[in-house]
Amino acid sequence: MPYNIADPGRDLDDLIVRRAEVFRQKQGIDLRTGHLAEQIDPSSKVVIARNAEGNREEVAYDKLLIATGARPVVPDLPGFDLPGVMTLKELEDGRRIKAYIEDHHVRRVAIIGMGYIALEMCEALRARDLEVAMVKPRPRFLPWMNESLAAMVKEEVEENKVTMYPGHEIKAIESDGKGLRAVCEDLELEADMVLVAVGVKPCSELAENAGLELGIKRSISVDRSLRTSNEHIYSTGDCADSYHVVTGRKTWIPLALRANRGGWAVADNVTGKRVELDGVAGTAVFKVFDLQVARTGLNSDEARAYGFEPAEVVIQARTRAHAHPGSSTIGVYMVGDTKSGRLLGVQMVGKEGVAHRVDAPAVALHAGMAVDEFSQTDLAYTPPFGPTWDPMLIAANQLLKKM
Amino acid sequence: MPYNIADPGRDLDDLIVRRAEVFRQKQGIDLRTGHLAEQIDPSSKVVIARNAEGNREEVAYDKLLIATGARPVVPDLPGFDLPGVMTLKELEDGRRIKAYIEDHHVRRVAIIGMGYIALEMCEALRARDLEVAMVKPRPRFLPWMNESLAAMVKEEVEENKVTMYPGHEIKAIESDGKGLRAVCEDLELEADMVLVAVGVKPCSELAENAGLELGIKRSISVDRSLRTSNEHIYSTGDCADSYHVVTGRKTWIPLALRANRGGWAVADNVTGKRVELDGVAGTAVFKVFDLQVARTGLNSDEARAYGFEPAEVVIQARTRAHAHPGSSTIGVYMVGDTKSGRLLGVQMVGKEGVAHRVDAPAVALHAGMAVDEFSQTDLAYTPPFGPTWDPMLIAANQLLKKM
After folding, report:
1. ipTM of the complex
2. How many CB atoms lie within 10 A of CB B213?
3. Chain B residues within an 8 Å CB radius of A244
């Protein structure tokens, strides 16, 4: 949605991959939109819903999939329900934001939060030439990221004239009738619109009330076949947890590929083809202005928390070969386990060649590869796309010296 | 060099990574340029050379590295020694080509061959607005490549106004004093300059005359520690062979990363740190006009030749997410072994996101991963850089159905 919001001429409906009618007509699915599922009764295998007219409906099941997703966290503070205070999750949110910008001649936007969505949205709003300020409570920007790589991202955002206020905790949003004010202890940001992007939480209440086991961050706990603690109920998508291939333990990383893959796997499992999912490597990528930012696996803090003894390295290399025009800096952070030799994680920042480069260490994490093995891989080289030694190999070679 | 040749304003010396004086002064290496090594006497551990004055010199060694590289194949046919008939390997070749283009007001170039160098050079020459025609004996363009992907490359080359004549075997090059003529059975190409780019062969004569074992395509046979059949003599770079991580057998794929990596590994081995190299996956990438073309591992013909029972698939996907502007087609070819389930190779063509994407299957080949495992990997997703299901995952899912 941020990329669509960036362009006032584009219709948000462009983003619809498949309309409800297609499910109904082409696939023969009894798709009941406008229904709120209120309760699951696992003992009688029935879902109790309320339809658009407010009437109670019961839907019996043999197998049930809970795919309720996640919703934005909205702090329980004064003024977060004011008109002009937005979140971005549903298509309807996008519509609301686009309409509000136009209807209220929005010039200044305050964004609360500095994560993926906040950063993608700050780019989208700057593309529409709006003034953007960002605020968050913790002083550290992208706290999961190596500090020198995070500094590259911060610089890119600031160069694009976004004002950043890390270390300021929001206390309230106020309105004076003309505009909004995001109020912190020692800071006030005036804005025509406020975007709240402080993260999401799983929509797991329905599952919890049905007695299903919840896991990390109250996500719905599922096994490798996406089955919940009830053998007839599956769950996947942003509401459900998954296994992390590096730690072997449960994690909750609500991202698109896992959600989509989980949907197919449940379909297979309920129709009789047994499928188990390996898990996630924690691979994520986002674009902010001209920078690509990617990660896979663990950082050293996470590694330590899971009992590894991490060594880490951060290097700077070039995105193109020696003397090739148009080259820029690429930063690579890499973590390995000094005990087992295993590769544990990689982070990367650069103007080009980051988004897909991170897939290589992601595959290595799935394979449980050692840093030494990874350092020997035959990665692609041609001058327009990298140096002879890929930046990841340079990082791996440096990391090996520390291990 | 092609990228430098494309720009008449750039000095070829830009490409020099380290000058001879640096080796001599900063590293204290007795670097004897202008010396021709004529013979190795392994029994007395001496290299016999001829210096610039034509005098014989003997260089004694404890350990010897043969890094003689490869040289362009030049057909033994009439006219290939005429002025204006060029090859491109050494820096001096690049200088000669740049000077010839300017000094002789070159307008039309015929390229014999249609491999990596030929294709990179056709782009470089078109960037200088020269007329380019390419000719090769076999009718199939990029014969190692899946035909539908090769057709994408051919179309790109032709759209850039390069005339292609596959299926024409060159018989001679003739000169009429004003220009050159590349003569085939039923075709004559007039040109001011002819570039011969029909491949390279290892410079292994010195090694052969010293009684060292040669391998595939007369490359110098080395073990995983880069040692030749003589325990005191190492070899690496384009003159030496290597192991292929998919087949476990010897191969000869003269590319930059392996050459560079081999140099470091020999340095370690002769100075007492034992290093063995895993081998190559056959990863290669090149750019031709706006297309990126990459491969790793085996195609199905190669797979069959090595005793695998390959299944293959070719898919077309998009380089960006549904409805994201600027998207284009990406073609992915994938091969797996129906016996073992292993991933055997991947090829890719597209305007973006190919060069680094191929690193992921390259890592998978090193890890001996099954197609099924690869299909479960957590690859990066964000709308500007790909669909939710990465094109490689789409290919893997399709391939699994055939396996």
Report:
1. 0.96
2. 13
3. none
The CATH code of the domain that includes B87 is 3.50.50.60
Q: Looking at the complex, report in whole angstroms how far the Cα of residue A276 sits from the nearest Cα belonging to chain B.
A: 10
C-alpha span between B13 and A261 (Å, rounded): 51
Starting at the edge strand found earlier in the chain, the sheet holding B187-191 runs B170-175, B180-184, B187-191
Of A254, A280, A306, the position where a domain reaches its end is: A280
Q: Which residue range(s) make up the domain with A386?
A: 284-402
Specify whether B299 is located in the same domain as B398.
yes
- By the 10 Å C-beta count (0-12 exposed, 13-18 middle, 19+ buried), A249 is classed as exposed
Question: Do B227 and B178 share a domain, yes or no?
Answer: no
- Could you list the mean pLDDT of each consecutive 10-residue stretch along chain A, which spans 403 residues? 94 89 94 95 97 95 97 97 96 96 97 96 97 96 97 98 97 94 95 97 98 97 98 98 98 96 97 95 97 98 98 97 93 98 98 97 98 98 96 98 96
Residue type, A207: A
Chain A residues 210-249 with CB within 8 Å of chain B? 245
Residues B134 and B227 both lie in one domain: no
Tens-place pLDDT, residues B207-231 = 999 999 999 999 999 999 999 999 9
Total number of domains in chain A: 3
Same domain, yes or no, for A76 and A180? yes
Residues 276-295 of B with CB under 8 A from A: 277-287, 292, 294
